[in-house]
Amino acid sequence: MRQLKLPEPLHGQWIWLREPDTRQETHLFFRRDFCVSEMPASSEMWITARTGFHLYVNGQLCAIGPTANPTENSYVYCVDINYLIQVGNNHIAVQVFNANSSLANFRKKPGGFWAQLQIDGQPFIWTDEDWKCLVPDCYLAPGIIRGVGAPSVEIMDFRGYPHDWHRMDTAAVGRSDF
Q1: Residues 109-166: tens digit of each pLDDT
Q2: Which residue, 97, 84, 25, 88, is CA-closest to 57?
Q3: E strands of the chain, at which residues?
Q4: 131 with 30: CB under 8 angstroms?
Q5: What is the C-alpha separation between 59 and 164, in angstroms, rounded?
Q6: DSSP three-state, residue 173
Q7: Is there a contact between 142 and 23 (Cβ–Cβ < 8 Å)?
Q8: Nearest-5° angle of CA 172, CA 119, CA 178?
Q9: pTM of the full predicted structure?
Q10: 121: helix, coil or strand?
Q11: Is 46 buried (19+), middle (13-18) or exposed (0-12) by CB count in 10 A?
Q12: CB–CB of 106/64 below 8 Å?
């Protein structure tokens, strides 16, 4: 694994639910739209989450992470997303999962999501209060624990899953709160 230095200046903040999260596991869907007037030379998404994330750019899954870290720290991924950026409107969607219990190779950590998009080496957007967040009602909690230190098996009701939540057209999600 190649080690990179975090971008400077470093912006953004860890974002999560406003109220205390006492559930065994939590799934959240985050979205952020942005616009570029010309094709950038480089676009890097720096991203991490506690416990895991799926990153989509303009509807395309482009990264899953982070790698397990048994310490208090979190690994940050640097993902080249330039091939997914288009002139005009763009969309970032991130599904974040937090296991509110210790897992094998993971310490129990409070839920959180952090990201910073660098365009042509400069901070362009980052996690803040402008990100939209959806708490899906399709995950029936708690999941089934497979064993000590293992993540739970998700139990879902797909009738409540916000299909196409990661795409540009928010009307397709069928939710007015997203």
Answers
A1: 778 999 999 999 999 999 999 999 998 888 876 666 666 656 667 777 888 888 888 8
A2: 84
A3: 25-36, 43-50, 52-57, 60-65, 77-80, 88-99, 112-119, 122-126, 132-134, 144-145, 152-153
A4: yes
A5: 8
A6: helix
A7: yes
A8: 20
A9: 0.84
A10: coil
A11: buried
A12: no
| Least confident span in 38-42, 57-61, 116-120, 157-161 | 157-161
Q: Are 134 and 165 in contact (CB under 8 A)?
A: yes
Domains with residue ranges and CATH for the chain: 25-170 (2.60.120.260)
CA atoms within 13 A on the CB side of 42: 11
CB 168 within 8 A of CB 32: no
Q: ∠7-10-16 over CA atoms, to 5°?
A: 120
CB 10 within 8 Å of CB 116: yes
The encoded tokens of residue 48 equal 């991490």
Higher-pLDDT residue of 100 and 65 is 65
Tell which residue, 166, 173, 152, has the closest CA to residue 91.
166
**Token representation of residue 17:** 């639910």
Q: What are the tens digits of pLDDT across the range 80-104?
A: 999 999 999 999 999 998 877 655 5
